[in-house]
Amino acid sequence: MATIESESMIRVKHPDQFFIDGAWVRASTKATLDLISPNSEECFLQVAEGKESDIDLAVSAARQAFDEGPWPRLTPFERAALVRALAARLRDRIDELAYVHTEQMGALAATAQRGAATAIARFDYYADLAETHVWTEDRSDNGPTALVVKEAVGVVAMITAWNGPLALLSSKLAPALVAGCTAVIKPSPETPLEAYILTECAEAVGFPPGVINLVCAQREVSEYLVRHGGVDKVSFTGSTAAGRRIAAVCGERIARVSLELGGKSAAIILDDADPAAVARSLTTSTCMLSGQICAALTRVIVSHGQHDELVDALAEGFRAVRIGHSRDPESQLGPLSMKRQLDRVQGYIAKGISEGATLVTGGSRPKDLNRGYFIEPTLFSNVDNAASIAQEEIFAPVISVIKYEDEADAVRIANESIYGLNGSVFTDDTERAYALTRKIRTGSISQNGYRINPNMPFGGFKQSGIGRENGIEGLELYLEKKVISLDRRPANW
């Protein structure tokens, strides 16, 4: 294994404070959150832990900035200029952003670097979109003047998951800023450092006070934020269980809400697909972020005739994966993000065996790694689609292979899930792939592998969420439509 550098690249200035109303302020208590490296199992930093009073201050600042401040009253072009400047500042700190992703949740160094670049580019994307988007539409139809205008939804609570902190935050903050919203950012307590770096960059750029506010807190305080009457919209990425609770709370006061939740996405393997090529593709995608991706292809649906050959090819690929420290350039699979996640995954592996699936390979902690939350890539075959490992999101490099009788049966199995986030159809016949993709109830689906375009709308059917992030649709999440009827068309519309 390669030597791993020990010098920290973390340059966060105020980990013991929050950013509220344009300034760094002390937390209301001395409570802290421990940040644990999944590679070493050691605490490498502590950050302030917020309470309800900290949330009150942050929401009040965001409320005043929206109701009385200049931000929503600037033109989209003016807001775009600051958003573009924020992207430039973030790009100056891209190495640090990649480093903290690796340090906090175990992302491979190269993956973290690419992910940071993609997330930063999203700010430029929405700055460009601000200059081309139709903000006011004339629908007069030769009668009285009728204008449809798009205005910011208001104060947005942004609650993000731990697996892709910067990517998830950029998908929310970039379009919300362009729309004219103000924000209260509440990152995952396990991975807050990207939000700290972003907030420092925003401070340097000079956003008006109260436009961007940051408070770190545990999940109980997050519900207080969701319930807060000063919040107009909640944008959440995380588990479906948490999403159900947030939707219920928002429903009590008819707060706007968008939810990007879990998945149990299916890869349908048609008989003309090459098992070796399929195995290479699925092995690579299964290792991304150690399988901790909501859109991961975790149910592999294959015909009876091709089942054994595909399982053998997948097993060979899984056994060849190099597991190791996230900053080791030779590693292909890093650790899971935290101890409770490792415990949870081991519980599902035991459940898969007890429910009758065949454990083909993996399922254990690597014998040569005595520290870190590592798990071998794990392959189950002969899985019943009703089994727990086929129906519940494990969030790990664990794949279930399920047999189908014919294409109609494959579609049935793929749709037999509470989720509908992503999917793939493996075949060289594009016409056949297209016909099949139209039958799968899922927000995204690709031919021959895992494929997510960061500028395309992303979200799910069923219990995979509400709304679509990214693309033009991601901007629309933060806008309300208003109809204005006038006696004549105004000169400055």
Task: Give a short overview.
With 493 residues, this protein is of the alpha/beta class. The chain has helices at 52-67, 76-92, 94-105, 109-130, 165-179, 193-205, 219-227, 240-253, 275-287, 304-319, 339-354, 388-391, 407-415, 430-437, 471-476; strands at 17-20, 23-26, 32-36, 43-48, 136-138, 145-152, 155-159, 182-186, 212-214, 233-237, 256-260, 265-269, 297-303, 358-361, 378-381, 398-404, 419-420, 423-426, 446-447, 461-462, 465-466, 479-486.
Overview of the molecule:
The protein has helices at residues 52-67, 76-92, 94-105, 109-130, 165-179, 193-205, 219-227, 240-253, 275-287, 304-319, 339-354, 388-391, 407-415, 430-437, 471-476, and strands spanning 17-20, 23-26, 32-36, 43-48, 136-138, 145-152, 155-159, 182-186, 212-214, 233-237, 256-260, 265-269, 297-303, 358-361, 378-381, 398-404, 419-420, 423-426, 446-447, 461-462, 465-466, 479-486. It is an alpha/beta fold and 493 residues long. The strands form six sheets. Strands 14-15-16-13-12-18-19 form a seven-stranded mixed sheet, sandwiched between helices. It has a six-stranded mixed sheet with strand order 9-8-7-10-11-21, with helices on both faces. A three-stranded antiparallel sheet has the order 5-6-22, with no helix packed on it. β10, α8 (240-253) and β11 form a beta-alpha-beta unit. α3 crosses α4 and α4 (109-130) packs parallel to α5. The N and C termini lie far apart (64 Å). The model has no long low-confidence stretch (mean pLDDT 96).
